[in-house]
Every structure is written in structure tokens, then in C-alpha cells.
Amino acid sequence: MKPMTTNKPERLLSLDFFRGLTVAAMILVNNPGSWGHIYAPLAHAEWNGCTPTDLVFPFFLFIVGVSIAYAMGSKKLDPTSHNKTILKALKRALTLFGLGLLLAIFPRNFSTFDLVESLSNLRIPGVLQRIGVVFFISSIIFLKTSDKNIFRIIILILITYWALMTFVPVPGVGYPNLEKETNLGAWLDRTILTEAHLWKSAKTWDPEGILSTLPAIATGLFGVLVGVYLKRKDIEPATKIAWLFSVGVLASLAGLLWDLQFPINKSLWTSSYVLYTGGLATIILALSYWIIDINKYNRFTKPFVVYGVNAITVFFVSGLMPRLVNMIKIKQADGNEVGALTSFYQTFFVPYFSPINASLAYAIAFIAFFYVILWVMYKKNIIIKV
Questions:
Q1: Heparan-alpha-glucosaminide N-acetyltransferase catalytic domain location, by residue (predicted)?
Q2: How many CB atoms lie within 10 A of CB 252?
Q3: What is the chain's mean pLDDT, rounded?
Q4: 367: helix, coil or strand?
């Protein structure tokens, strides 16, 4: 990560707001005081279905796509700059992938850390890894093909993935299915990555697996097309909003209809899930654009913009910091030792709230803590480029 102190460039404020809202939600759901006490909307769907928490990751990938259209729009018009731009995108993608691997390997206890053992059981897929892959592939497609072809690629990906998952027999199982451990994606992950390098909570499948990254790219490209349209100077803002709302509603409805045959499922990143979440993201961005950028009602946006301009940084640090702090051990009254952050939660939250509200209050305090840090960075015009 390279810290840069610069004058703030012109940015689409509604996009920063949406990005900040999304990453703050991501931190909220990833850092409860207790994983055993979570309100239902702040937990993922057990398998099929979609909770508010299941919207967070696809919204972020959608925003990555919109950002590509804004950041690389001028470069697309200059073919001589494509190779240089793709190289920069590759470097950024590798950085994101590497940060994801670092989070996966970083020990929760240095005293028992074994590098060889950790590498042999390192989880390779992950959230940052998927963001890096989607960013890189979406960047190439954006630079090298027309908007119409991007649309065609999205449709091709969604139909191909649906056909693979619902018609191709799974080796060792004998029939196509969409169950956790026996679907085609899970088989491919175990075959290529082996169980040692998959999600530790399952070991037999991974929610950010290889095959499901294909439709995740479609989510990024969905955002690219929305960004391209939003950037157009030859269309009145009211017309843009009307079209974006229409597209968002139609895509969400299409996702709900497809759900009847190909269930909405985040872990499988089904084609219906791409349409449903992409449609909702389009509606939210269109509404934000109308309120914030067109009508200039933006006083309420500052806390989220503060999160939005350093989104990847705060996501990475919020994943790393608890592990570091919990390496400091605090002795309890019963003689047991717990991590410092766990002790903080048990001392300042558990005695004063019900279990589920203590867990939520801790997560909110976690967001507030990082907000203070990000506010100082924002006021000093510090944006950490990843």
C-alpha cells in the first residue's frame, strides 16, 4: 500500500457515499462481539436466499465496476495507453490478492505460529482475492471491447454458468446439483485447490471458489455498464435516473423469476443472484446520484464518504487489527487468559446489554473507532492507494 497526500480529485460523491456505506456494512457484519449472538439480517442466508448481509459483497464488486468506467474512461479512447493501463491494473490486482493471502496466513497466536504448516493449509480464495480478480478481468474487458459486447459477455457468463451448474453431472456424484458439498463448483475447488486450501469452516467447498468467480465477474461488468451510462454527457440527469431505475427494477425482477429455477445463492454466486443484487445496486446508486449529485442534498454523506475514499484500507486493517490486539493476553478473575479485545468486549459491553445487543453495540463501536481514524486521514487529504 502506498500512502499519497494529494488534493482531492473530482469524484462522483454518490459513488463514494455508496462505497463507504457498503464497506461500513461489511465491517459491521464481519465484527460482531459474539458470533453466537447476531440479529438475523446481519447474518448470511444459510444457503439459498438473500439477507441484507448477502448484498454487501456484490454491491462492492458492482462499485468496483462503476469505478473502472470512471477511472479508465479516458484511457479506453487511447489504444496506445491500454498496455500500460492493463499492467497497472495487474499490479493492483496482485496487491489485493496478496493482501488477502496475508490476512489468511496471519497468525492469531505468534507463539504457536509455524510458517511451513500455515502455508500448507493456506486458504487461497477469499474476499480481497476475488476483488482483485474481478477488477483485473473487468478492466481488460472494459478497455478492449465495446459496451454492447460487454453486455453480451454478461449474458454469456450468466447462461454458461447456469448451464454448467444445472446440466453438467458432477464427477463422483453422477448428477448435477446445487448442494453445498456436491455441486460442480465444490468439486472443482477440491480438485484444483485441495481441501487444505479451502474455507476452514467447510474444507469441502469455498464461498469464493474458482467457478463462482465467473459470475462474480459479471457483477463487476454490470457495474461497468452502469458507470459508462452514468458518465455520459449527452443525456439529461432525469433521463439517466429514469433509465437506471428501470434497468434496476427489471434486473431484480429477472433475478427473482430465475430464482424459481436457479435459486438466489451468495455462496454459489448464482446467475439469479447476479441479476437480483445488480438490480438493487443500480437502484440505490441511481437514487444516491439523484439526491446527492443532482439535488445537492449531501450533508448526511460525510461519514460514509470518509469510509468510501479509503475503503480497501479500512477493510484490510479492520481484519488485521483484532488479531494483533488479541495477541495481548489479559488474565480474567477465574484465572483464564483471553485476548485484549475479547476482554474489552466482556468488560464494557456484556454486563450492560442483552447478549445480542452487546454483540451489536460492539460492532457499532468498532465502526466508530475506525471512523475517527479515517476522519483524520480525510481531513489531511490522505488516500492510501492499493
A1: 11-167
A2: 19
A3: 93
A4: helix
- Rounded CA-CA distance 156/151 in Å is 9
Task: For residue range 48-105, list pLDDT tens digits in order.
Answer: 999 999 999 999 999 999 999 999 999 999 999 999 999 999 999 999 999 999 999 9
How would you classify residue 194: left for phi > 0, otherwise alpha for psi between -120 and 50, otherwise beta?
left
pLDDT, one tens digit per residue, over 167-191 is 999 999 999 999 999 999 999 999 9
Q: In this predicted model, what pLDDT tens digit does every residue of 124-178 receive, in sequence order?
A: 999 999 999 999 999 999 999 999 999 999 999 999 999 999 999 999 999 999 9
| Rounded distance between C-alpha atoms, residue 216 and residue 133, angstroms | 9
Q: Which residues of 289-313 are buried (b: 16+ CB within 10 A; e: fewer)?
A: bbbbbeeeeeeebebbbbbbbbbbb
> CA-to-CA distance for 225 and 1, rounded, in angstroms?
28
Measured distance CA(340)–CA(327) in Å, rounded: 7
C-alpha cell at 112: 504457536
Burial 153-189 (b: 16+ CB within 10 A, else e): bbeebbeebbebbbeeebeeeeebbbebebbbbbbbb
Give me the phi and psi of 138, to 5 degrees please: -65, -35
Q: Which three cell numbers stand for residue 104?
A: 489468511
Answer for the pair 210, 189: CB distance below 8 angstroms, yes or no. yes
Q: What is the pLDDT of residue 109?
A: 64
User: Over 90: is that where the pLDDT of 11 sits?
Assistant: no
Q: How large is the angle between the packed helices 82-105 and 56-76, nearest 10 degrees?
A: 160
**59 touches 45 (CB < 8 A):** no
Distances (CA, A) of 224 to 77, 143, 227: 15, 11, 5
What sign results for the dihedral spanned by CA atoms 256, 138, 281, 94? positive
Distance CA(106)–CA(98), nearest Å, equals 12
Cell numbers of 262, please?
Answer: 436457479
